[in-house]
Amino acid sequence: MRRVRGGALAAIAMAGVLTLASCAKDSGNEGQAGGEGEEGSCVTAQAPPAPPASSSSSEADENVDASSLKVGLAYDVGGRGDASFNDAAAAGVDRATEKMGVSDSTESTAAGTESEDAKQQRLDQMASQGYNPVIAVGFAYAEALKAVAPKHPDTKFAIIDDDSVDLPNVTSLVFAEEQGSFLAGVAAVYKSKNCHIGFVGGVNTPLIQKFEAGFVQGAEAASDKVQIERDYLTPAGDITGFNDPGKGNTLANAQINKGADVVYQAAGASGKGVFEAAKSNGVLAIGVDSDQYNQKTVAEVKDVIMTSMLKRVDVAVYDYIKAIAQDDLSNMPERFDLKVDGVGYSTSGGQVDDIKPVLDGYKQQIIDGAVTVSDKVSG
User: Fold this and answer.
1) What strands lie across the sheet with 134-136, from one edge to the other?
2) pLDDT tens-digit map of 242-260
3) Can you tell me the mean pLDDT for 143-164?
4) 140 CB-contact burial (10 Å; exposed 0-12 / middle 13-18 / buried 19+)
5) DSSP string covering 120-141
6) What's the whole-number mean pLDDT along residues 136-144?
7) Contact indicator for 341, 315 with CB cutoff of 8 Å
8) Do domains 70-175+315-325 and 176-311+349-368 have the same CATH topology?
């Protein structure tokens, strides 16, 4: 466990964040901690101006026919029903079925301790059964995909959260998790009454460290006095950290006992335990990947979910299937970031409505390049 104080902002060495920090200690800042401006606010930095209201409307889906496609979905540990990462991928396939008429789909879930051979078998079986495209949900499938994809050159594969598979029939779907997490860090500061917040990661890998890195940078951009708890459920190589709600509950309780009153989790199905800890202690939590306030599997604790960092795996999966149906992958973004709405934050439940102009101001600065968010952990 590591505790970081907000004064470490300079150590980030990040030009955009330093620019924001130079505006710190503006006592007239609108929208204080808890959204009520009470004495002792955690916020010390002037918020950037809110962008002008957008009058743009989303374009209607093109009339794309995907009825000839059979989609294979190889889940990471936790599978459909994890209220997080896997559910987001499932939502993308479900939408493609509804909107574009995907004729058939199949899905299979990885076990927490399964071998590389098991992963290869899952992908190989889907391809052999005529599923095309086959979508591997998670970086854990990288090595298996390197072995399987060359054996099925006519099958299109995609892998989420990994860009190491350099094969002609494999598309990487990667995200700017640090950008969305930056906004989560800002929100946590504005809603914290103790000026003490926490991050719970599932597995200590470079991917989950991106969530941590962005969260810390966002919090420290908004406050130079915030305290931040940072912990992981399991080390790299032990993916059970994504499917252990009990351990998530224990770790979140430990952070709350130290004073954290807003806890952000990037822990897959383990996040349910974090929400339960927040509920039992009367503090707030921030969800991840999906809009977890609306997830049925955590409905009994949704009132503590003030927002979720949206990682639009559903959008990436849907857009990929659409591109396959059109036989044109050229317009797929290299990375799903704030600019293409690949990441963001949710407003369900109304608990961040009062600070939405602040969050949108920071979001616009990231899009414009005035703030650069590092994907590396500092401190």
Assistant:
1) 104-109, 70-75, 134-136, 157-160, 170-173
2) 999 999 999 999 999 999 9
3) 97
4) buried
5) HHHHHHHHHTT-BSEEE-SGGG
6) 94
7) yes
8) yes
